[in-house]
Specification:
The strands form 3 sheets. The chain has a 5-stranded mixed beta sheet, with no helix packed on it. It has a 4-stranded antiparallel beta sheet with strand order 4-3-2-11, with no helix packed on it. The protein has a two-stranded antiparallel sheet with strand order 6-7. The protein is built from 2 helices and 11 strands. It has one domain.
Length: 120
């Protein structure tokens, strides 16, 4: 799984965990196992939380914050774009994050939310 991070000022830190093609985001599980190779789930956010059906009849997932882009599978690897919340004291590695490649299941280490988190 390849995760691209987009930094954004936000008070709630991001907590991620991977289990196969399931990405747990702040306690909510998103299962992308049905996404075939070469396909895309376009990101759409609806106020009512319902999934959307695109004009071509394909399903579009309702992906709320912190999802920040489409979910794709290329060469068998999931590609996910997420907002990376941080506060005003976040270190440079958080404000300018590198993409993360996750190859094992379990908690995903992210850049610290604030300089206080960095010191821990």
């Amino acid at each position: 799984m390849k995760i691209t991070l987009k930094p954004v000022r936000h008070g709630t830190p991001l907590i991620l965990e991977k289990s196969g093609d399931v990405l747990n985001v702040n306690g909510v599980a998103y299962d992308f196992s049905a996404l075939p190779d070469g396909a895309t789930y376009p990101r759409v956010e609806q106020a009512n939380g319902d999934d959307v059906i695109a004009s071509d009849g394909s399903a579009v997932l309702n992906l709320p914050f912190p999802f920040a882009g489409d979910i794709t599978r290329e060469g068998g690897e999931l590609h996910v774009i997420l907002c990376l919340p941080h506060d005003s004291s976040a270190p440079e590695e958080t404000k300018f994050p590198a993409p993360i490649t996750v190859t094992v299941d379990g908690p995903i280490t992210l850049p610290p939310h604030s300089i206080e988190d960095f010191a821990v």
